[in-house]
Amino acid sequence: GEPYDLECRIVRRDGEGRIIRVRLEVEHDKNGRPFRALGTIHDITEHKRALELARASQNRLHGLVENAPLVIWSLDASGKFEFVDGRAMQLMGMKADDYIGRSIFEDPDANPQTLDLARRALNGDEASGIDEKNGFVFEVQYSTLRDDDGKITGAIGVGIDITERRRAEEAARLSQTHLQAVMESAPVVIWATDAEGVFTVSQGRALEVIGLHPGEAIGRSLFEMYGEDSAIAEMARKALQGEESQSTLEVDGHIFDVRYGPTRAEDGSITGVVGVSYDITDRVKAQRERDESEERFARIVTNIPGMVYRFHRSLSGKMSFLHVSEGSRDVYGI
Q1: What is the pLDDT of residue 269?
Q2: Which domains does the chain have, with CATH numbers?
Q3: Which of 68, 131, 185, 328 is the most exposed, fewest CB within 10 Å of its CB?
């Protein structure tokens, strides 16, 4: 005569499994003896699925909060913390219990910008910004909480730790600044093309000596600018086939030490060409002048009778001959 409540799984004729809930109530007569049973059967399959999805979602959220570098918190309508959690709390050496029940507006260490974000959220506005605390940098997003009547009941905040990203961005900015300083002062051109030979990068002070401005060549074809049969085009084709090469080229009266190589995607496929060109015009001219001077000196002393020689004394006092005429060789037997 006892009632019972049972959940069980059944399989329908079409093979689909369903979950049902069976409830049975027993009715008794005036003498307390059972005389009739009333039973109900409810299909609770969708309800069970919804519960399972909610449980899985809750587990994922818990895992996210426990492992992701973030903080999640909620405030009541007055700004008091009702909930605080997240791995970033541990990273900063902070405990949730130190905040629960306290007003965010009474935190002496709170960033004024953070307090402004909280006020805006508690006034019904979405708010986002950057907050810094204990040496960490957070990207903060606030959302307003409302009841069924639309009345504001508080706000929820999410802070994502972007400290490492900020450091990486700052390092990249400094690196870019240093690179830009080098590019503006050194007689260098750094350039790159895509797989079709179209310039995607063109930077460097040495561009001005060949009549170009930084970035001017971007979007133009290397093969059209310098000609399909030029040495530059030939080196670019080799790079697009996977070869690295180095050469000395003369462009508009200037001499460049040019190095080419292919750029590749993660799968190893060639995506373009990268090149570095260093203006060595002054160095080459200086070497040519030295060579010509040596030749002139040699021609002069060859026709002078007697002894002619030129020597160099090092800082240590050691002497070495730079040139010895034939007459000197005869005298000294060298």
Answers
A1: 92
A2: 4-52 (2.10.70.100), 68-166 (3.30.450.20), 186-279 (3.30.450.20), 295-332 (no CATH)
A3: 185
